[in-house]
Automatic annotation (TrEMBL):
Site location (Participates in the substrate recognition with KAPA and in a stacking interaction with the adenine ring of SAM): Y29
Catalytic activity: (8S)-8-amino-7-oxononanoate + S-adenosyl-L-methionine = S-adenosyl-4-methylsulfanyl-2-oxobutanoate + (7R,8S)-7,8-diammoniononanoate
The protein's name: Adenosylmethionine-8-amino-7-oxononanoate aminotransferase
Family: Belongs to the class-III pyridoxal-phosphate-dependent aminotransferase family. BioA subfamily.
Entry binding sites for substrate: W64, Y157, K292, G325, R409
GO annotations of cellular component type: cytoplasm
Organism the protein comes from: Shewanella sediminis (strain HAW-EB3)
Length: 455
């Protein structure tokens, strides 16, 4: 085994076969010939990950924003264990079961009143695929089958499957790699109005112009409400979302809200769209996508919800039925886990948890804005971001963070955290301190490089 290809804190007697992993197993966005180093995790508890060499890391990512209750929560584990012993999986075609019914009741109860129909999928990307198909099939049922285009904003991210990536950012996304295989949709500039500032007067002009000229061909607008996640961790004004809902109504197009990353408390509201209200009424989607934290991160599950009107249009289409049905649709084990996670949110004072996390991050990250290589520092709910001036070296910084005892995975020019809601103040300080330490190190390295290049 080539020790140089392993994380430097890896023990010689590791129980994890790193060499097999390196030679045979794909990891997200990695090369099989020049693979990034992988750290071996053997257990997780609360907000901590234990590596194969015994090193313990505070998790700053909630395993890609999903494990909001932390790891090994007894309430979720007990529920899953009970469900595993009775009905772990059964096909959903022609069969139903109580976990799916119970979860759907809960979701209809906590989302906006307009959303009454529930499609239980198995991943966030599929939830988006389902949403796009719903929008297209709806217009078939309304005798407007020419409405086949989707309109969205740049800097968005909606998943890696083909329909989902067709509405991701056209420059930073995957469009250039897959060319004409990706359906070409319509894009306008991303919102520029910051979350805590009034709507810029021109921010919706491009969206309006596109709808004026092409609304007869546009089936729906899809957008991540308030937070553009993997497209840049950008927080935008709730007033933009309010204006967008009005435009969709004016030009007769559906509004799809992708809350996969933002749902279940992450931004400080149960759903991010709740930040945007018209006359006291929250902005309502025609179609809503949920995932990630839906099960507390314990098992994959996603949901696409829609209104009665959308469901009726689909039912009136030539097919007469909605044309989608995954093998693991409505998986009872996943539905039971989601019910347990939602029960925890209902019982726990998660709003106060998020407020405390937000307050602490604002205080502890504030000083990073003074570092020359830092472009911006921003915090919303349980999301903390240090944006650098240039792209960072993910592999190099990953090792630095592990050495500091935290799990933070930067990407592009962003050093960010989305910790579990149950994180302690001391654990959070460890994360924010590590973020500042690494950001300051990048600043120092840039200064040194500049001195050398000009010396």
């Amino acid at each position: 085994m080539n020790k140089t290809n392993l994380p430097k804190n890896h023990a010689q007697t590791s129980s994890i076969d790193f060499e097999f992993d390196k030679q045979h197993i794909w990891h997200p966005y990695t090369s099989m010939t020049q693979a990034l180093p992988a750290f071996g995790v053997v257990s997780a508890q609360g907000c901590e990950l234990t590596l194969d060499d015994g090193k313990v890391l505070v998790d700053g990512t909630s395993s890609w924003w999903a494990c909001v209750h932390g790891y090994s929560h007894p309430a979720i584990l007990d529920t899953m264990q009970q469900q595993l012993g009775t009905l772990s999986h059964v096909m959903f075609g022609g069969i139903t079961h109580q976990p799916a019914i119970e979860l759907s009741k809960k979701l209809v109860g906590i989302t906006s009143p307009k959303l009454t129909k529930v499609f239980l999928a198995d991943s966030g990307s599929i939830a988006v695929e389902v949403a796009l198909k719903m929008a297209l099939q709806y217009w078939q049922g309304r005798s407007q089958s020419q409405k086949q285009r989707i309109l969205t904003v740049k800097c968005g991210y909606h998943g890696d499957t083909f329909a989902a990536m067709s509405v991701c950012d056209p420059e930073g996304g995957m469009h250039t790699m897959f060319g004409d295989s990706v359906t070409q949709h319509e894009f306008v500039s991303a919102p520029q109005s910051r979350f805590d500032e009034p709507l810029l007067s021109h921010d919706l002009d491009e969206m309006r112009a596109k709808l004026i000229s092409q609304h007869s061909e546009i089936a729906a607008v899809i957008i991540e409400p308030i937070l553009q996640g993997a497209g840049g961790m950008r927080f935008y004004s709730p007033e933009y979302l309010i204006g967008l809902r009005k435009l969709c109504d004016e030009f007769n197009v559906l509004l799809i809200l992708d809350e996969i990353a933002t749902g279940f408390g992450r931004t400080g509201k149960l759903f991010a769209y709740e930040h945007a209200a018209i006359d006291g009424q929250c902005v309502e989607a025609d179609i809503l996508c949920l995932g990630k934290a839906l099960t507390g991160g314990y098992i994959s599950l996603a949901v696409t919800m829609c209104s009665d009107e959308v469901a009726q249009g689909i039912s009136d289409s030539p097919a007469g039925v909605f044309m989608h049905g995954p093998t693991f649709m409505g998986n009872p084990l996943a539905c039971a886990a989601a019910c347990a996670s939602l029960d925890l949110l209902a019982q726990d004072d998660w709003q106060d948890q998020i407020k405390q996390i937000e307050r602490q991050m604002k205080i502890e990250l504030k000083g990073a804005i003074d570092y020359p290589e830092v472009k911006d520092v921003r915090v919303l709910g349980a999301i903390g971001v240090i944006e650098m001036n240039s792209t960072v070296n993910t592999a190099e910084l990953q090792q630095e963070f592990v050495d500091l005892g935290v799990w933070i995975r930067p990407f592009s020019n962003l050093i960010y955290i989305m910790p579990p809601f149950v994180i302690t103040s001391a654990e959070l300080t460890k994360l924010t301190s590590a973020m500042k330490h690494v950001a300051k190190g990048i600043t120092a390295s840039s200064k040194e490089a500049g001195f050398i290049s000009h010396g």
